[in-house]
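Hey team,

Sharing the EAL domain-containing protein run so nobody has to redo it. Sequence (262 residues) first:
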Amino acid sequence: MQAISTRALSLGNALHDALEQSEFYLHYQPQVSLSTGKIIGAEALIRWHSKTLGNVSPAEFIPLAEESGQILAIGEWVLRETARQIKRWLDDGIEPVRIAVNLSYAQFQANDLPLIVNAILNEYDVPAEYLELELTEHIATKNPKHTITILESFQRYGIKTAIDDFGTGYSSLSYLQRFPVYKLKIDQSFVRNMTTNRNDYVIVGIIILLAQQLEMTTIAEGVENQEQLDLLKQLGCDDIQGYHISRPIPADEFTRHFLKKI
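Structure output:
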C-alpha cells in the first residue's frame, strides 16, 4: 500500500507539469475497411513520456488525470494536436483520413464542448469531415437527454460521433436509436474471444445486425489475427482496428506506411 501511495504521489506531481513540459504526444492506430482493405481512418491515442518517470501507461495516468480534474486540459490538448496534425497533412499535400478522438466523461459534461471543438477546427482550418469523436457507452447512457443535446450540436457542425466499447455497458435500446451517431465500436473483450467462445461470437453478430438495422456502421477493435478478421468479415462488420493491422505508431511512421499524396 505504501508503494502504491508513493507511486501515485510521484505520478500526480509529474502529471501536474506534463502539459507545460510538452511531455505528451500522440500515436495513431489505423482503421481498415473490410470490404476494400483500405485505410479509412485512425484513432489518436495519447502517450506520456515523463522526464522524471519515463514512459507511463495511459491506463495509469488517465484515471489520475480524471480524478485531479486535469483531464479537461489534457483532452483539449489531444483535440488541438489532432487538428494540428491533420492540418500538417493537408499542407504537405497528403490525403488525410478521419481521425477518432476519445472524449472523457468530464469533457462531455461541458455544455460548450461542441463550441470548443468547432473553434479548434476553425482555428486550424480543418474540415469537420476529418474528425470523429468517440464516447463510451457508459458516458452516453449516464444522462441520455444531455447526450442527445450534445450529439445533435456536433451533428450541426458536421462532426461525426461514435459509441466506443459498445456491449460493455447497460444501454437502453430506446435511447440508442435516438442518439445521432453513425458508428458502433465493438469492444475488444468480445473480439478477443469470439474465435473460441460461441457466446462472444453471437454477441458480436448481434451488435453488427443491430447497427445495420439502425443504419449505423460497425468497427471492431482489438483484432489480433486473421481468424478474427475472417469471422468479422463473414458477420458483415464494416471496419477493423488492432494489432493485426498495426500497433499505434507515431505520426511520421503512420504517414509513411498508410497515407498517400493527394
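Residues 178 and 211 are 13 Å apart (CA to CA).

Ping me if you want the raw files.
A.
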